[in-house]
Amino acid sequence: MHASRQEGLDVWKITRYNGPHTCSNPAISKDHYKLDSKIICHFIMPLVEQQPSVKISALQAECKDKIGYELSYRKTWKARHIAIVKIYGGWEESYGRLRRLMITLCKQNPGSPVLIEDDELFIDNHLVLGYKVFDRMFWSFKQLIEGFKHCRPIICIDSTFLYGKYKGCLFCATALDGNNHIFPIAWAIVDCEDGRNWDWFMKCLRVFVTDREDICVISDRHKGIIKAMQDDWWQPPTAHHRFCIRHSLSNYNTKFKNSVMKDALCKAAHQNQKKKFYEAMYKIRDMHQETYDWAVKIDSQKWTRSHDGGKRYGSMTTNTIESMNGMLKGLRALPITAMLERTLKCYELMFHALGDEVYWPESNGDPLVPDSTRKRQKGRPMSSRRNNKMNWMLKGKLRERSTIYCSICREPGHNRQSCPIKNVDR
């Protein structure tokens, strides 16, 4: 080992060492600048094809085992995106195949309702003939419509976001069969969750799916749903609207942030007898007047079991929808046609197979194109969701924000753009 003293400093610098190295240089990245996303795509293609919702961390671990490099999150995400396009096609191409897919679905499953609404295509204020802009779509299956006749008269409705290249929302309606199993009824893809789309979806349910009387609809307290339920088709005695207690308590907790009173409201809502409900509410009034005032403003029929009149059949939440959304979470990041095809595979034992795309019938309508105004901006979107006890908990406390680590020096507190040693030669 050779060492020399730094001039003007009381520091010795080791210039030569022939022994084994036991530490790593933080300035040397464990990634490789020539290992781009296209090459990584070749390694992760089988994993993405088998499981489109595979996490980035799992792909990073797989690449580390195969090629020995620790890849950055951004590079691995781009590689997964390229793999999805190669396997399932691009987003624009997927919209062009949508009509043929839904026509095939109706042909293989006669009586299945499908409704696609579109708009004219304008480019630079000029009408373009031969193409239509996708607006929204509703679909169900004849098998589900017939099966719902033998289920409890309860429909749970909710929405969830699409994660793909274009913004959108997936509406879903489910029921419970005699064995308390989830029974899906209908779906819709729309641009956003608002009163216009909820009114359209609820009308489609009445026109295409069911005309049963005395149906109970359970949902959250979204203003669009409440407005849509004012339609004569969904008014008593034809139908009854009830609120999901889980969402209602989440709204309360967001406003008051009082977990003790939230639990007290939950206990009151689940009481079977009116006497016990009033006793629980009087206790709440003595403990916290503001909570009592908040609760009495809501119609007791809509959020309590004691005043429900048996319309809920004991169902206090829309957990069936949450389970459905969880199952489809990974598929919601795929192109629209691929998402529908994968959804059908989840129920392929109930429906007739669509067959190979080569044998799909041709569509009489103009091919669809996505709405350019719904295209997502580049970069990770800022989260505006308020997390509470409905989301995730860690040892009774909300999970703290994760620490940022640099992909070059692996040090916390900054990223690769602000790394002080990013210009060091590799």
What does this structure look like?
This protein has 426 residues and is α/β, with parallel strands linked by helices. Among the domains are: 89-244 and 318-380, no CATH class; 245-316, no CATH class. 37% of the residues lie in helices and 17% in strands. It has 15 helices and ten strands. Helix 1 packs across helix 3. The radius of gyration is 28 Å and the shape is globular.
Secondary structure blueprint with pairings:
Layout: E1 2-5, E2 12-16, H1 37-50, H2 56-67, H3 73-88, H4 91-96, H5 98-108, E3 114-123, E4 126-140, H6 142-148, E5 154-161, E6 169-176, E7 182-190, H7 195-209, E8 215-219, H8 223-228, E9 239-243, H9 245-256, H10 259-269, H11 274-287, H12 289-296, H13 300-303, H14 319-327, H15 336-346, E10 368-369
Parallel strand pairs: 4-10, 5-8, 8-9
Antiparallel strand pairs: 1-2, 3-4, 4-7, 5-6, 6-7
Keywords:
single chain; 426 residues; alpha/beta; 8-stranded mixed β-sheet; two-stranded antiparallel sheet; globular
Write a brief caption for the model.
Helices cover 37% and strands 17% of the residues. With 426 residues, the protein is of the alpha/beta class. Helix 1 packs across helix 3 (73-88), helix 2 (56-67) crosses helix 3 and helix 9 runs antiparallel to helix 10.
